[in-house]
Amino acid sequence: MPWWAWPLDLKPVWFFSERYAGSSTGLIYDTGNLVIFWLGMAAMAFASWAAWRRRSLSLTLLVILWAALWLPWARIDRATFQYHVYASLPFAVLALGYFLAELWHGPSLRTWFLARAAAALVILGPMLLWLFRTPLCILAGTAEAHAGGAACASAVTRTAQLSQGGVAALVVLAAGAAMAGVLGWRSTRRATRDPARGARPATPLARPVVVALLTLGGVVAALVLLDTTTTTSVTLTSDLLALLGLAVLALPAWLVMRARDPRRFVLAAHRAQQHQAAHQ
């Protein structure tokens, strides 16, 4: 993987891979926390701007040390790996902490827009990276180094066995998730309204609980009342799955772009980082 792709955390380093009895597989690999890597790029851009605008020596040193531990790898001809960027990562974490502190204490409109746009791109990033894998493979030289790999394949297909009950259950789950997203967006808007204008008091738990119960009931009804024994093989391409994922993730990305409270944004970023770390 080329040096410029390291901050995107595109490819982990595989240290161990072994197949065992049955379908069991043992894997050991190192990878980065996507929240730190992807939001860290926006944070470093902000730190670079703030170092110049605020004439901050500490921020200037932070940016220089980060660049000094990353950019020299652009001139290295031997094989390089993801872990080579880890030496510069602590400075990206410091920049991210500075960026989040700026949001917590009241950002400017441009800084607040940068944070929301970066977070929305983080949400949509996995699907966009897959949809644009062909130009990325050409730029990175992956197609030449590993021409038969799945990452640069023109089409990757997956076959699923679907029944009437399974399809209906998936539709119910999608509708329930969409309704939960709409309720979350409405509660966010309601929380920022001026009570003096006559906004009705919010009921943060009643409606989500009702939606969850209705969704659960719909899933159970679909699996019980409809046929689940007769299945049909459906072949899906990776591009179609990526487009479906992009459509699903468009709602949370849009909600992020509509966010109005920077402090809630900081808390959400912190929780997302903890969640990502817990699953590594």
Task: Write a brief caption for the model.
This protein is mainly α. The protein is built from ten helices and four strands, in the order ββααααααβααβαα.
Describe the protein:
This protein has 280 residues and is mainly α. The chain folds into 2 domains: 3-155 and 249-278, no CATH class; 164-191 and 201-230. The protein is built from 10 helices and 4 strands, in the order E-E-H-H-H-H-H-H-E-H-H-E-H-H. The chain has helices at residues 34-53, 57-70, 89-104, 109-131, 133-140, 142-145, 164-191, 206-225, 238-257, 262-278, and strands at residues 13-19, 25-30, 157-162, 232-237. The strands form 2 sheets. It has a two-stranded antiparallel sheet. The protein has a two-stranded antiparallel sheet with strand order 3-4. Strand 1 and strand 2 form a beta hairpin. Helix 1 crosses helix 2. The longest helix has 28 residues, at 164-191.
Mean pLDDT: 81
Helix content: 55-70%
What is the count of structural domains?
2
Cα distance spanning the termini: 21 Å
* C-alpha-based Rg, rounded: 23 Å
Give me the strand/helix succession: EEHHHHHHEHHEHH
Going across the biggest sheet, name each strand in turn: 1-2
Oligomeric organization of the protein chains = single chain
- Our count of helices gives 10
Structural class: mainly alpha
Fraction in beta strands: 5-15%
- DSSP strand count: 4
